[in-house]
Amino acid sequence: MRKALLLIISIAMIAGGLYLVAAELLWATRIYFKVVIGGGALMSLGAYLLWEDFIGPLFGKGGN
């Protein structure tokens, strides 16, 4: 159950960060780089969680 919840949260973090960056760069009339940096950080953290708990252990690279 913990792994499934972590998978859902990490995918949501990646999707939310991607949405923030895309919305700010493509559709905003004024670009706030704090939002772009925040979205990038959110995507990076979600990708890190996904790598450490799911993708890395499949390949024997990192993880617990």
**Helix-and-strand structural type:** mainly alpha
Number of helices: 2
Order of helices and strands: HH
The share of residues in extended strands comes to under 5%
Large-scale geometry: elongated
Question: How many beta-strand elements?
Answer: 0
Helix % is over 70%
Report the sheet with the most strands, covering strand number, pairing sense and barrel closure.
none
- Give the distance, in angstroms, between the N- and C-terminal Cα atoms: 17 Å
Give an overview of the whole structure.
- With 64 residues, the chain is mainly alpha-helical.
- It has helices at residues 2-27, 33-59.
- The protein is elongated and about 45 Å long.
- The two termini are 17 Å apart.
- The mean pLDDT is 92.
